[in-house]
Specification:
mainly alpha; elongated
Amino acid sequence: MNTHGDSAPAAELNQALETLKSPVTRLKHLLERHSGAVWRAVPLDAALMSLFEKLGPLLRESAALANQKKAAASALAKALLARGEMRQREALEDLGARIGEAWTAIEEQLPAFDARIAASDPGVWADIQAAQARLAYLDKWRGQIRAQLLELHLA
C-alpha cells in the first residue's frame, strides 16, 4: 500500500468492490454503463406485492411490541410479552425466508441476461431494469426485517 501517494486509486478500488458485492448495485452499474435505458418505475408483480402487503403490518406490530417491552417496568411484565415476541420473531423470520426465496429466484435469472446481451436481445435491458428494481425492493425489505428483529432483541 502506498502511504505517501494519492489515495484515489484505493478509493476507486473500494468503490468498485462495494459495487460488485450486491446484485442490486451490479445491475444498476451495468444499466448505467451500457443500456442507455431511461429510468422507469417498475411495478411490483403479484408475488412481490403479496410480500409487501404482509411486511407493513408485521413491521408495525413488531415495533409496537418492542415499545411495549421497553415500557415494561418489571421482569414479570416483560415475561408476559415473551410469547407475543416469539410469535413476532417467527413471523418476521418466515417472511424473511420468503423474501430470500424471491431474491434467489431473481438471482438465478442473471446468467441468462449475459447470453441475451451477447445475442443483442433488444428486450434484455428492460428485463434487467425490472430485475434490479425488484432486487432493490427485496434488499430494502430484508434490511427492515433485520432491523426489526434487532429492535425486538434489544428492547
